[in-house]
Specification:
The structure holds two protein chains of two kinds. Chain A is an alpha/beta fold. Chain A is built from 17 helices and 24 strands. Chain A is globular, with a radius of gyration of 22 Å. The N and C termini of chain A lie far apart (about 45 Å). Chain B is elongated and about 85 Å long. Classes of the chains: A alpha/beta, B mainly beta. Chains A and B meet through helix 17 of A and strand 1, strand 4 and strand 5 of B.
Chain lengths: ~500, ~450
């Protein structure tokens, strides 16, 4: 099995504000009358994450004027760097790239940002449900998944079945899958319960869903999981669970070299023009007129012929629309809940685990463990040493309720379990609690529970008047990943160009 | 194509990444642009003037109840952009659509098998409107525009070339000829030639028995004669037995590239019909890419690239249901899409007697239209927009208040300018008309 990335992916940023804030905004607008600055462009893009900036870049290259409104005080959305000094960074959000993710890789390359391998010599660590620690090579038949003989039959059967069923699911319209209704009746947890034999294997399943989705298996529908697997490929390579989960030949195979994904966003924003990419400008309201769309924020009014909303659907649902959104679009934004994911990291003087024959990847499946998966996040130079871990779903909710000191102590103790006593003295500890990020409210991706994708999926990309939708949740391939975000921006830009 | 009762070849190949785009490709270099998602069985990859590729899913011979889909791909990297589900199909019958061409508005012309009909797909709204309907046993198969906006349609089920009059409506028998009778394997591709005075038409077989060897397909030339009538049909090429000619594309040179569905080859013909080359030269369909030819069924040019849809019709191997990109080394003939293609009304409204004074704007319209009116005021050397508004006006004369148009209770003394654009219900827009007047 393997691992996964995480905050994977994505990128749509956030540029929305809670509808509850609207009265205040209205008051401010009223007070200042028409004094708010006004800007006009062909297209207004809401959100300066990878999706929005990719769209803005494509439109600019096509000769159209754009204004990008970003709620946060930084670009990047769900990609965000933590500065390690000396030009090195650790990624708080989207981190990995892999085969068939050519859209993000090519975009980065066009901005002088290459990739480097995440395949580090050494073994993976596995802590089984009984708390027993073993090591294994990910070059074996299970890939990143633990080489645990007690789970192998279930692992093989379940992965084979998931891949086979995913092959029935069209990535452009999973709701059209011949057995969509049947798949939608199950949560992943229930389907696994009926199609596996051991609790030991079942304990492994949250270890996958927490990093991948930021959820528990009970929270996501089987149809959504199958779509996610089908999405883990491209137009010439059907998606597979293995490509999603593995490091070797999988979505965690490489990383973007510094300045990494947020540096890429900064480079794109710079190429568009800093006067065209406006920070700290949350969009509160979008008013569609007959020929012009007015996009209102407390700081300015932007007018354009078209709007691309490139933020997570749940954030998009907090914008006040006039006229109001059709019911299915609004229901979609109500149903598509962001994952509950926290990313934790420890830095060390050097990646000591490598000297011990470990590659930094660990999987833990005991009930009380918070960090179910870790990766070596050291810079390309190898210094300092960085391990990051995913805390997702129930564990992320538990983590949120702990004191800062307890969080650190618990995570460090788990790193000691995985990698030995040297892990007990990090030089730094930092976390990124995505559900608490004001403009994003969770990650790595918006998740569909039973019924959501079937009933409201068709509204994901449907153009509403002059409003187009981007963001990784709208992507056909690599939905939930940085590549999906870039793809969605490219697609939205083409949609708009068709109409200008 | 479809329905050849011939065994197909299946080669299992592992998928491989696209080769690097940089550098010139050798002639016949083939790569996989995209695998076509379910329900699969792509029959005709249409290259739109916007450079994108539109692919409909066709008939699954094993039967299915999934409505057909239309996919939009980027013509460069093959990225899947959008998709639409075809509405109103009879799913109890074999069904499928071919994206045959596009109209003057960019809408995709879909030829549907069940019910037999032609739809126009609006890519922006997703709206699907009926352009023409047929009755059984007709199977509209391929289509090409004539210079006057007529749409010529081949019929896989009957030996008829249909003509849909400009703007759509009831199909008219343009040519009925026993040589087009292929029994179950009837008339396939159709393209307008460079001189815009003749059509090339392919047949998949001569199973109807009127053209000679029933196992061979043929390419015919049909002149568009005086008054738009069909001229005498002449044979250009006869295929080898069991080639199963399907769709084809025409190069600027006049060479014709035919998808031979049953022999798994592309056949290159000179303008006079003699065979220049077959790719691949042997049997088996090995084209050097990770997906071998497995019932290739159409050729559309994108620059010098032949975009080939293939169905894997006989075996239904979904890993072979793909859009392939074959370098031909020569540019394709640009498709003719007349200015009135697909439009019932291609005439823009006429704006006449447009007058502006300090109080009112008066004008005459030749038909009902939505009028886009922008009022500007000159301050110093610069025009400043005051207001843009829309009015739905009836045909005939209209008088509008300048104050109302500017949304002002009073008009400051200045020079005013009004720009008017009228658009009728069919979307035809007249050129902008501009008038100025001074308010004192």
């Amino acid at each position: 099995m393997s691992r996964r990335q995480l905050l994977g992916a994505t990128a749509a940023a956030a540029a929305t504000g809670a509808a509850a804030a609207a009265p205040g905004a209205s008051a401010a607008t009223k007070k200042k009358s028409t004094k708010l600055p006004s800007k006009t462009a062909d297209v207004i893009v809401v959100g300066a994450g990878l999706a929005g900036l990719t769209a803005a870049r494509a439109l600019t290259k096509a000769g159209r004027s754009v204004i990008v409104l970003e709620a946060n005080d930084r670009v990047g959305g769900r990609v965000w760097n933590h500065d390690l000094g000396n030009g090195a960074v650790s990624e708080r959000g989207g981190t990995f790239v892999g085969p068939t993710q050519d859209h993000i890789i090519n975009l980065a390359a066009e901005h002088g940002i290459g990739t480097f391998t995440n395949i580090i010599p050494g073994d993976n660590v596995y802590v089984d449900p009984d708390g027993q620690r073993t090591t294994y090579s990910d070059t074996g038949p299970t890939g990143t998944a633990p080489l645990d003989p007690l789970i192998l039959p279930d692992l093989n059967n379940v992965v084979s079945a998931l891949d086979s069923m995913a092959n029935e699911v069209p990535v452009d319209a999973p709701w059209n899958a011949p057995r969509a209704r049947e798949f939608e009746r199950y949560t992943l947890e229930e389907w696994v319960r009926q199609n596996s034999t051991t609790d030991r294997f079942r304990a492994l399943v949250p270890t996958a869903t927490r990093p991948i989705f930021g959820t528990e298996p009970r929270e996501i529908s089987l149809l959504f999981v199958l779509f996610y697997i089908a999405s883990s490929g491209d137009e010439t390579h059907p998606g597979t669970f293995e490509r999603n989960f593995n490091t070797r030949d999988g979505a965690q195979e490489k990383r973007l070299a510094a300045p990494a994904a947020q540096g890429l966003c900064q480079a794109i924003a710079k190429s568009i023009g800093t006067s065209r990419v406006l920070m700290s400008t949350p969009v509160r309201r979008i008013v569609q007129g007959k020929s012009i769309v007015r996009v209102e924020s407390p700081k300015l009014i932007a007018r354009g012929k078209r709007v691309i909303v490139a933020i997570p659907p749940t954030s998009a649902g907090r914008i006040d629309y006039d006229p109001i959104m059709p019911a299915d679009r609004d229901q979609l934004s109500q149903a598509l809940r962001q994952g509950h994911l926290t990313k934790v990291a420890c830095t060390y003087d050097k990646p000591f685990w490598r000297d011990k024959g470990l590659n930094g990847t660990a999987l833990g499946t005991t009930n009380d463990i918070l960090v179910n998966a870790t990766f070596d996040d050291s810079p390309q130079s190898g210094s300092p040493g960085v391990i990051f871990g995913f805390v997702g779903g129930d564990q992320s909710r538990r983590y949120a309720g702990m004191s800062p000191a307890d969080r650190r102590a618990k995570v460090v103790s788990e790193f000691v379990t995985y990698f030995g006593p040297e892990a007990g003295n990090p030089t730094d500890y930092f976390d990124t609690r995505w559900p608490e990020e004001r403009w994003i409210r969770g990650g790595p991706v918006g998740n569909h529970g039973p019924g959501s994708l079937l009933e409201y999926g068709p509204a994901l990309r449907r153009v509403i008047g002059k409003i187009h939708w981007a963001g990784t949740e709208t992507s056909t391939y690599w939905n939930g990943y940085m590549d999906g975000a870039v793809r969605s921006g490219e697609r939205a830009a083409k949609e708009v160009l068709d109409r200008l | 194509m479809r329905r050849l009762g011939l065994a197909g070849l299946v080669l299992v190949a592992l998928l491989a990444p696209l080769p690097a785009a940089a550098g010139a490709r050798e002639r016949w270099n083939t790569r996989v642009l995209a695998l076509v998602p379910k329900p699969g069985f792509p029959a005709h990859a249409y290259v739109h003037p916007n450079g994108r590729i539109y692919e409909g899913t066709y008939d699954n011979p094993a039967g299915d109840t999934a409505p057909s889909r239309v996919f939009e791909y980027d013509g460069g990297d093959g990225a899947l952009l959008r998709s639409w589900t075809v509405e109103g199909q009879d799913l109890s019958q074999p069904h499928g659509v071919q994206a045959a061409t596009s109209d003057a508005r960019g809408r995709i012309v879909l030829l549907d098998k069940s019910p037999p009909r032609i739809l126009l797909l609006d890519r922006g709204s997703g709206a699907q409107t009926l352009y023409a309907g047929f009755s059984a046993p007709s199977i509209p198969n391929y289509a090409a525009w004539g210079p006057d906006g007529s749409l010529y349609v081949t019929d896989y089920g009957r030996p008829i070339l249909w003509r849909i009059p400009p703007g759509g409506g009831a199909p008219q028998v343009w040519l009925e000829d026993a040589r087009l009778d292929g029994g179950q394997f009837g008339t396939t591709g159709i393209e307008l030639e460079a001189g815009q005075a003749s059509l090339l038409v392919a047949t998949q077989s001569s199973a109807g028995g009127s053209a000679g060897n029933p196992a061979t397909g043929r390419l015919y030339r049909v002149p568009i004669g005086a008054g738009g009538k069909a001229g005498a049909m002449t044979q250009v090429w006869e295929s080898k037995p069991v080639d199963g000619p399907d769709g084809f594309g025409i190069a600027k040179s006049g060479n014709v590239y035919v998808a031979a569905l049953a022999s798994n080859q592309l056949v290159e013909l000179a303008p006079d019909g003699h065979e220049i080359e077959r790719f691949p030269s042997g049997a088996g369909g090995d084209n050097g890419s990770s997906v071998p030819f497995d019932s290739p069924s159409s050729v559309s040019f994108l620059g010098t690239r032949a975009i080939v849809a293939q169905q894997s019709y006989f075996t239904g191997d979904s890993t072979h249901q793909a859009i392939l990109d074959v370098e031909t080394g020569e540019p394709g003939l640009p498709e003719l899409i007349p200015a009135n293609a697909g439009l019932a009304d291609a005439i823009a409204p006429r704006l006449t007697s447009v007058k502006l004074d300090a109080k009112r704007l008066s004008l005459k319209l030749s038909e009902d239209a939505e009028v886009d009116i922008t009022v500007e005021r000159k301050l110093g050397k610069t025009w400043h927009a005051l207001r843009r508004s829309y009015r739905s006006l009836r045909a005939g004369g209209a008088v509008l208040s300048l104050k109302g148009l500017a949304s002002k209770k009073t008009l400051r003394p200045a020079l005013y300018r009004v720009t008017i654009v009228a658009t009728d219900a069919a979307g035809n827009a007249a050129g902008a008309v501009r008038r100025t007047a001074r308010v004192r």
